[in-house]
Amino acid sequence: MGKIEWAMWANEQSLAAGLIYATGGIVGVAGQFRGWQFAAFGIAAGVFVCLLEYPRSKRGKGTSVERTGQYCFTVCVNAFGPLTRNYYVRAFLHAALCVPGGFMLATVLGCVCLGIASLIYLSAAIHGEHWEPILPRTEPPKRVGDSIKEPPQNPPPRPPPELRRKKADKLETAAYDNPMSVTVNE
Amino acid sequence: MGNFAANEGLSIFVILVWLGINVFLFVHFYLAFLVERYYYTRVILGHALSWARAPAACLNFNCMLILLPVCRNLLSFLRGSIQYCSRTAARQLDRNLTFHKLVAYMIALHTAIHIIAHLFNFERFMDSQLMINSSYLPYVLSQIGNNDNRSYLNPIRTNETNPTIVMFTTIAGLTGVVITLALILIITSSMEVIRRSYFEVFWFTHHLFIVFFIGLVLHGVGRIVRGQTIESVKVHKPDECHSRFEDWGKNGTDCPEPVFAGNPPMTWKWVVGPMILYVCERLVRFYRSQQKVVITKVVMHPSKTLELQMKKKGFKMEVGQYVFMQCPSISQLEWHPFTLTSAPEEDHLSVHIRIVGDWTQALYTACGGDKTVVQDAWTLPKVAVDGPFGTASEDVFRYEVVMLVGAGIGVTPFASVLKSVWYKHVQENKNVFTKKIYFYWLCPETQAFEWFADLLQSLERQMMEKDMSDFLSYNIYLTRWKDAEAAHFRVQYEAEDDPITGLKQKTRYGKPNWDNEFSAIATQHPGSKVGVFLCGPTALATALGKQCISHTESGTEFIFNKENF
What we know:
The complex is a heterodimer.
Chain A: H1 6-30, H2 36-53, H3 71-78, H4 82-85, H5 87-98, H6 105-126, H7 161-164
Helix pairs in contact in A: 1-2, 1-6, 5-6
Chain B: H1 4-32, H2 39-45, H3 48-66, H4 72-82, H5 87-92, H6 96-130, H7 137-143, H8 163-169, H9 171-189, H10 192-197, H11 199-206, H12 209-218, E1 226-228, H13 230-235, H14 238-241, E2 260-262, H15 267-290, E3 293-301, E4 305-312, E5 322-326, E6 336-339, E7 349-354, H16 358-366, E8 384-389, E9 401-407, H17 412-428, E10 436-443, H18 449-465, E11 472-478, H19 483-492, E12 508-509, H20 514-524, E13 529-535, H21 538-551, E14 557-563
Parallel strand pairs in B: 9-10, 9-13, 10-11, 11-12, 13-14
Antiparallel strand pairs in B: 1-2, 3-4, 4-7, 5-6, 5-8
């Protein structure tokens, strides 16, 4: 199936699972169902999974697309070092978190979804993937001249204006406008 | 202010009708469960019953709709028939994938409402079995049907269980879990990030829809939604008898025990039609793919572009259509879409394939791309072709004035258009409705010009011979260049032919100023309908769409058509 990075799909799946887990937990607690303690755990686990999974990892190959506003999450998740970078740890964590959800109907769906996400992460880990933070590239500061504005870095390849004047009778076929007006006799 | 309605009107109308039907179904089925028959069901469940049944009806409707936009052959057929009546309606069919996604989101929403309501239902059913108190109506109701196990109300028949176990032991519960899981997996693998990067994961996971539909049809088979039977309501009126539940069935009362039964499954009536249509669609695709296709020529173009010329018996196409190609020796299951770059007037069909992923790389190797000696015809791989399928480019010749905008490889459908133009005007000299074509090609690198530049060169030559240089006005924009190249261009600016393409019209640098272009065209052609056709990235589509709307004034109308795969 090509060089797929399984972690990307695992990330989407676990984010969805976290939301479902939390929603099921909210329903269980709000409705005061039997076993609402498991539902309360579901809310906590679901929210935690969402926070952990929100920042996308940098892709091994290709351009990475960030989620909106993920930078602060990236910094937090990155701070835990190997605990969050390693996908075996994540697979095991998700598997452990999903188990209590199986004891109550409202959180069962979250449990199963998180379990599937855990399996996909296991596959990702076996394929040697790991989490990389997407950090902004530090660009070299542009030096602006004091009184002179910098010319454009990559100007359109045109000769200087003096050489660029098209003759007046060829104005219609010119591919660009004259920078200075011309008359026929020039 | 431009004519927004011309471009978007029909789409908005369709969406409003669809939303309206959803709202109507929701409200109608919500109220349908507030009647006398379900009085006792509501004693246990409250309004959660209606909250579960209303989205179920909407789900039936939307699951019926979701298969229809992906029946490509059916849509092509409809498009062909409709476009004689209304071009706008035919164009609406191009937005099938957008509609498919909208319906999918609606299914996800209604699934969520349905599940949450059922969580309450399960809990309340369980409660009424556990509150063992014969003065408690829900408990009394739950004991009805204990003898014959047929006339019961509460699907939870014992108090020695819990909702989770009940869910996994009822047909409705089990199928519900399975189809919800299938739906979630389909949705997560359809996210844009996954779809654009790993199409195969998206495509294979999407086939879980088969599991989804089977489970959906079986979901109601257990008849778990129960209400009083009609005969029972005649003799036992809930309004009068509900408070006298301790006397039901006893001698002398006029309240016999109520009898309950389940509703027959309804979903199959909604989805069986589209399912049959979809099966036919897949059969048509399979049949067409079995027709023999012969590769007659393989050309390797510079910027990792592979051109395949093929012949297939009985193949008919129109300009700018696309086909799906499969190569059994590479993958039995993968079909990939490619725009046809040949014109209908030619005797072969050709595609230009950019080598970007595994499948295209394998195709390149299979066609002998890395070998330098000439290949024998029998060594070329067998391919299958399904299609052609129509897209917006078919409409090009229905406009008097046409703007074609292609970004990078997106210029391929227009290769077909331009070739067809050449054949029509120059060889067959037909009276073509289209009077003027403005062609814009935006490209980030010079190498990509090569194969297309040849086509433009021959067109240029032919037009000069026939004294028709006015017909086609093309503008090539190089959007990125290196300093070294820039120096070369600077020196060559006065040359007769363009240094990059060898064409008479000079290559421009940077991005076009669309405002100027649109204004110029509007002033040149007052009072006409100008068709704007784009094959390129979404950002460009948004920009052009806005330009079309803002430059459509009294008289000149810019109609925007976008292609997408």
